[in-house]
Amino acid sequence: QPQVDTLSGRLCGAEALARWHCSKYGDVSPGEFIPLMEQSGLIIPFGQWILSHSMAQCLEWSRSKPDFQISVNLSYIQLTQGDFISFLRTVLEENSLAPSRLIMELTETYLAKAEEDTLRLIAQMKELGVKIAMDDFGTGYSSLGMLKNSPADVVKIDRTFVRDILTSQFDATFIHFVVALCHDVNIKVCLEGVEREEEFDRVRSMGLDFIQGFLFGKPVPPDVFERDFLMP
Ligand code: C2E
Ligand code: CA
Ligand code: CA
């Protein structure tokens, strides 16, 4: 799915979103199959597969868009089982992609309860040059105060805050404050779930760095992405 720069409205990257078309059950949503993969341990090889493919794709698309960034979702299982750092180091070497173009997304809920060993892993990822995004921000029980010492380079505000943006002053104020707080500590902010022009009009002056939502593009297969977003 494309991500755009709020000020210029131009494409700046994409989030890799997994899809499964099953011959028996048809299209199964990631909300269903990711938890199953986590329970069965299949998330480890799958996570490796999607990460290396996403990096290769990013490198290819960098030819037409030099600053193109790729965001990849990371399951907590990938960090707790196996040697994720060695794998990441290897895959970075194999792909010759500048590490700073890779953004690893971890949920707010996971980051909020991260203990010392997890924080150490995240610090190691950052030492390799990879960026960290805090996904689904605002849905957990953590406080705005956690932004102060957060390892995140990007905060992604959950799309539930856009749903009622036209009627809810609270949601607008929340977005506004999150942007102000994040910018104070050098964190960029992405708003997810902008579907309508009116919603974009409401949020466009709030200082958001990036926007991701159906208004700018739905998740599509790589060939369609190329045709729709990368061809001049
Ligand atoms: P997420 O990381 O929060 O991904 C964003 C989800 O919001 C995607 O759903 C996307 O299609 C949807 N979305 C984006 N913009 C809009 C919008 O304007 N309106 C609406 N209604 N929805 C929007 P999707 O693709 O179904 O993914 C659901 C979740 O599955 C993801 O949520 C992520 O947590 C998980 N997931 C997907 N792919 C992977 C993966 O490769 N690895 C892991 N670990 N999790 C994944
Ligand atoms: Ca995500
Ligand atoms: Ca999200």
Note down, in words, how this protein is organized.
With 232 residues, this protein is α/β, with parallel strands linked by helices. Helix content is 44%, strand content 20%. The protein is built from ten helices and ten strands. The chain has helices at 30-40, 43-62, 76-80, 84-95, 108-112, 116-127, 160-163, 169-184, 197-203, 222-230; strands at residues 2-5, 11-16, 20-22, 26-28, 69-73, 102-107, 131-137, 154-157, 188-192, 210-212. The chain has an eight-stranded mixed beta barrel with strand order 1-2-5-6-7-8-9-10, surrounded by four helices. Strands 3-4 form a two-stranded antiparallel sheet. Strand 9 (188-192), helix 9 and strand 10 (210-212) form a beta-alpha-beta unit. The model has no long low-confidence stretch (mean pLDDT 96). The site of one calcium ion (CA) has 5 residues, from strand 7.
